[in-house]
Specification:
By secondary structure, the protein is an alpha+beta fold. It has helices at about 5-20, 25-75, 75-80, 85-105, 145-150, 195-200, 250-265, 315-355, 370-430, 435-440, 480-500, 505-520, 600-605, 620-630, 635-650, 680-684; strands at about 110-115, 120, 135, 155-165, 170-180, 185-190, 210-215, 220, 275-280, 280-290, 295-300, 445-450, 460-465, 470-475, 535-545, 550-555, 560, 565-570, 585-590, 595-600, 610, 615, 655-665. The protein folds into 2 domains: about 35-300, PAS domain (Beta-Lactamase, 2-Layer Sandwich), CATH 3.30.450.20; about 435-675, 4-Layer Sandwich (Phosphatase 2c, domain 1). A hairpin with a 4-residue loop joins strand 1 (about 110-115) and strand 2 (about 120). The longest helix has about 60 residues, at about 370-430.
Length: about 675
C-alpha cells in the first residue's frame, strides 16, 4: 500500500525540519550563559578593582600619614611646641621642617601651637611663611576640628576639610603632639583634594565609580566633590543629607545591607564583600573593602551594563553564522511552502474569482489527491449550489423589486398628498391669524414672530380693534402639527364666543368663560389620559381713552420694558381646561409711551440649546428684551430670532413659538391714541 503524503503531512514535515534545525533555543540558552558569565566576570572585576584601588590609595596615603607622624613626633617639633618663643628652638624646627616639606607629596606642612593657638602653614619654604597665618579660637566653628581631634584621644586622623581662612581644600593628615601631661599641638600635612580625586577617584574606568567612606558611611572622597562630608574625619555629627552612602539608597533593606557590608569589611580587613544595590535610582554592583591603616572603607559601584566586561568581537562571527543558517532555512521553507501550498491555492483562488464573477463553468484543480483536491471538489459542489440559489434569488429579487417599486410609487403619491394637505392646512391656519388687521390698525407699532414646529402648529395670536381700544393675545394650545392646528380652530371659536358673551374689555372674564366652555366641550372623563386639551393664553386690553392696559393670563405673562426697567406681569399658574380649576383675575396699569410690551408662548423659553442643552430660560429672555428695547419692533423680532437660532445650534425646534410685541405712542387723535403709526419711532 502506497503511503500518501497529504498537504498536512508535507507542511508538518517541513515545519518540523525547520524547527529542528532552528537554533533559537540554543540562542536563548547561550544568551543566558553569556549573561551569567558577564555577571561572574563583573563580580570578579569589581573585587579586583577594589583591591587594586585600595593598594593604590594605601601606599601614597600611608606614606603621607607616616611622614606626618615622623614630622609631628620629631624632637625639634616637640621642643619648639613646648617653648614657641625660644628663637633657637624656632630656628632648628623650621630648618628641619623644611626638609619634611620637601618630602611631603604636596610640599606643604602645617603646625598648631596649643599654648598660643598660632596656626602655621608653609607651602613654599619662604621666611614669610614662618609667621602664623591665623590663631585657633575655641568659639570659631571652623576651628572645631582642632579641639575635637584633641578631645577624641586619637594620636592621628585623616580629615577632608575646607580651610576657608587659607582658601584651600585638602585631605589633611593630623598628628597630635603630646608630652607626658598635656597636648602640645597638632602637626601634619595635606594632599590637594582635587589632585587626590583625579589621581585615585576619577580614574575614568568605564562603568566604575570608586568612593571612600568612614565607618558610618560618610563620604571622605567621591567623584562629585559636593557629596564629600567635609571635616567628618575630625568632627562627629557634622554630616549633611546626601553626604552618606545611605542617602543615595532608597530601599531600607538595601541601606541595612550596605551598612552590614561595611561592618563586615571592618571586621575582616583584606577581604572584599560584594552586593547589589540601587544607587541614585540605578542598579549597581557594590564592592566593599576596609583599609585599617587609614580607617577608611573603599566602595566601588559597578554599572554592569556600561562596563565592557566581555569583548563582543567573538560574538559577531557566531551571530553571522547563525543568521546565514537561519536565512538558508527560511529560503528552503519558503520554497517548499510556495511549491506545496501557495501555487495550488493560487490556482484555486483564480477559479473561485471566476465563479464569483458569474463564470460557473470555470475548471477547478480537482485532480489532486490531497487536501487541496478535496477542497476543490467540495468547492465545485458549492459553486453548483450557489448557481442554483442565485438564479432562484434573482427571480425573487425581480418580483420583490417590482412590488417595492409599486409600493414606493404609492408612498410618493401619499406623501405628496400629505404635504399638499399640510400646505393647505398651513394656508388655512394663517388665514385665521390677524396679520392684515394688525398691519392696518397698528402698522409699525407691532411685530410678530410665529414659527410652528411643523407646517402647522398649536400656537396662534389674535387681535380685535374696537372704537375705544383693542384686544391682543397669544394662545398656545396643547399639541403640535395637525392635532395642534385643529385645537387652534376650536380654541379660536371658543374665545370668539367668550368675547361676545363677556365683552372685549375684560381679559379675565374672557379667560374664565373660555375655561368653562372648553371644559364643557372637552369632557375630560370621556377622553384618554394621554390627550391634552389645555391652553396657555395671554390677553391684553388697551383702552385708548383712559390710556390704560388691562392684562390677564393663563401661564403666559406680559413683559414691559423701556431698556432700563423691566416689569413682568405673571399669568395664572394653571392653563385653561387644566384638571384643577382656578379663577383668573386682571391687572390694570398705565399705558406708557415708548415702552415695548411683549407676549410670548413657552416654546421660546423652553427651547433647548447652549453648551449643556438647557432651555433658553426666563432670565436670558428678559435680558434680551431689555437689550433690544430701544430698537424698532421689527428689528427686535429679527434679533430675537437670531439669538434663538444661535442658542439652539444644531438641536431641533422643540415646540411652536409665538412672540407678539407692541408699543404705545400718544397722539392728538384720542380715537387712535393707543397706537399711532410713526416712521420716526420705527427707526429710533
Amino acid at each position: 500500500m502506497t503511503f500518501r503524503w497529504g498537504l498536512r503531512g508535507r507542511s508538518t514535515l517541513t515545519l518540523l525540519l525547520a524547527c529542528l534545525l532552528s537554533l533559537l533555543s540554543a540562542l536563548v540558552i547561550g544568551w543566558q550563559a553569556i549573561d551569567d558569565i558577564r555577571r561572574h566576570f563583573a563580580t570578579g572585576y569589581a573585587e579586583s578593582y577594589t583591591l587594586l584601588h585600595m593598594q593604590r590609595i594605601l601606599a601614597p596615603v600611608s606614606r603621607e600619614l607616616a611622614l606626618a607622624q615622623r614630622f609631628g613626633n620629631a624632637l625639634t617639633t616637640r621642643d619648639w611646641l613646648a617653648d614657641e618663643t625660644d628663637p633657637d628652638k624656632r630656628r632648628r624646627f623650621f630648618r628641619e621642617a623644611e626638609g619634611f616639606r620637601q618630602s611631603f607629596a604636596d610640599h606643604t606642612f602645617f603646625i598648631v601651637v596649643d599654648a598660643s593657638g598660632d596656626y602655621y602653614f608653609n607651602t613654599d619654604g619662604s621666611a614669610k611663611a614662618r609667621t602664623p597665618r591665623y590663631r585657633i579660637a575655641g568659639g570659631d566653628a571652623e576651628d572645631a576640628w582642632y579641639f575635637n581631634t584633641l578631645s577624641s584621644g586619637v594620636t592621628d586622623n585623616i580629615n577632608v576639610n575646607i580651610d576657608s581662612k587659607l582658601g584651600v581644600t585638602k585631605v589633611w593628615f593630623n598628628v597630635v603632639v603630646r608630652d607626658a601631661r598635656s597636648p602640645l599641638g597638632i602637626a601634619g600635612s595635606g594632599l590637594d583634594l582635587s589632585d587626590f580625586l583625579d589621581d585615585f577617584i576619577r580614574d575614568g574606568a568605564n562603568g566604575m565609580t570608586p568612593m571612600i567612606v568612614d565607618r558610618n558611611g560618610a563620604f571622605q572622597a567621591h567623584p562629585d566633590a559636593g557629596r564629600i562630608a567635609y571635616s567628618s574625619g575630625a568632627e562627629a555629627g557634622q554630616v549633611g543629607h546626601g553626604q552618606r552612602i545611605q542617602d543615595l539608597i532608597d530601599a531600607p533593606g538595601q541601606r541595612t545591607a550596605v551598612m552590614k557590608a561595611i561592618g563586615f569589611a571592618v571586621q575582616h580587613p583584606g577581604e572584599v564583600h560584594t552586593l547589589s544595590a540601587t544607587l541614585d535610582g540605578k542598579q549597581r554592583l557594590l564592592s566593599v573593602g576596609y583599609l585599617p591603616e587609614l580607617d577608611w572603607v573603599m566602595i566601588t559601584a559597578l554599572d554592569v551594563q556600561a562596563a565592557r566586561l566581555l569583548d563582543p568581537g567573538w560574538l559577531w562571527p557566531l551571530v553571522g553564522g547563525l543568521v546565514t543558517l537561519l536565512t538558508v532555512l527560511l529560503l528552503a521553507f519558503s520554497y517548499a511552502t510556495e511549491r506545496l501550498i501557495i501555487l495550488p491555492l493560487r490556482r484555486l483562488q483564480q477559479s473561485a474569482s471566476a465563479i464569483a464573477d458569474g463564470d460557473y463553468v470555470s475548471q477547478l484543480p480537482v485532480r489532486r489527491n490531497d487536501e487541496i483536491g478535496e477542497l476543490s471538489r467540495a468547492f465545485a459542489r458549492m459553486a453548483q449550489q450557489v448557481e442554483r440559489h442565485t438564479r432562484e434569488l434573482e427571480a425573487r429579487v425581480r418580483e420583490r423589486t417590482a412590488a417595492l417599486e409599486s409600493a414606493n410609487r404609492d408612498m410618493v403619491r401619499a406623501r405628496r398628498q400629505i404635504e399638499d394637505s399640510l400646505e393647505y392646512a398651513g394656508i388655512i391656519q394663517r388665514a385665521i391669524l390677524p396679520s392684515p388687521q394688525l398691519g392696518t390698525a397698528l402698522e409699525h407699532q407691532y411685530a410678530v414672530l410665529w414659527r410652528p414646529r411643523d407646517h402647522v402648529g398649536g400656537d396662534f395670536y389674535l387681535f380685535r380693534e374696537y372704537e375705544h381700544g383693542c384686544l391682543l393675545g397669544v394662545v398656545d394650545c396643547a399639541g403640535h402639527g395637525v392635532p395642534g392646528a385643529l385645537m387652534t380652530m376650536l380654541a379660536r371659536a371658543i374665545i370668539d364666543h367668550a368675547i361676545l358673551e363677556i365683552g372685549e374689555d375684560d381679559p379675565a372674564g374672557i379667560l374664565n368663560a373660555t375655561d368653562r366652555q372648553a371644559r364643557e366641550l372637552f369632557n375630560q372623563e370621556r377622553l384618554p389620559g394621554s390627550i391634552a386639551t389645555n391652553m396657555d393664553v395671554g390677553l391684553v386690553w388697551v383702552d385708548a381713552a383712559t390710556r390704560t392696559l388691562t392684562f390677564a393670563g393663563a401661564k403666559i405673562g406680559l413683559y414691559a420694558t423701556d431698556g432700563e426697567q423691566l416689569e413682568v406681569q405673571r399669568g395664572g399658574k394653571r392653563a385653561l381646561a387644566q384638571k384643577r380649576r382656578m379663577v383668573y383675575t386682571s391687572t390694570r396699569q398705565p399705558l406708557r409711551a415708548g415702552w415695548t410690551y411683549t407676549l410670548c408662548s413657552d416654546g421660546f423659553l423652553d427651547q433647548a440649546g447652549g453648551e449643556h442643552g438647557f432651555g433658553f430660560g426666563n432670565s436670558r429672555f428678559e435680558s434680551m428684551l431689555m437689550s433690544q428695547a430701544g430698537r424698532p419692533l421689527e428689528a427686535q423680532i429679527a434679533a430675537f430670532e437670531t439669538e434663538l437660532e444661535s442658542y439652539r445650534g444644531e438641536l431641533p425646534q422643540r415646540d411652536d413659538i409665538t412672540v407678539l410685541s407692541f408699543r404705545y405712542r400718544p397722539s392728538a387723535d384720542t380715537r387712535r391714541d393707543a397706537f399711532v403709526p410713526s416712521r420716526s419711532d420705527d427707526s429710533s
